[in-house]
Amino acid sequence: MSFIKYSKTLNTNKIELGWSCMPINPLIVIMSCRKNSHLWNNLKNCDKTCIIFCGDPSLKTDYVYKNRILYLKCEDTYDHLPTKVYMMIWAILKL
Questions:
Q1: What is the pLDDT of residues 42-59, one digit of tens each?
Q2: What are the extents of the domains in the chain?
Q3: I need a labelling partner for 37 at 20 to 30 A (CA). Which of 6, 52, 58, 94 fits?
Q4: pTM
């Protein structure tokens, strides 16, 4: 029987599975849109591991990752949120 235990010590996060320890490295993704790009620097300064993603249908490739911003080739409106989330997951798995 295995157990899962989460512990935090100083600068280390660990998940213990059974008798082994695995370090975890969470990725924080923030959904945004181009019209809110004036807020992105403040968001990126809150956490050094976060990525902001937004849609840009004019991209020539499926995604562009630059300066912790993930631009996705999809619409940037509320009507297309499911597509934006799907594209974000797909692009992150490709990075």
A1: 999 888 889 999 999 999
A2: 27-94
A3: 94
A4: 0.73
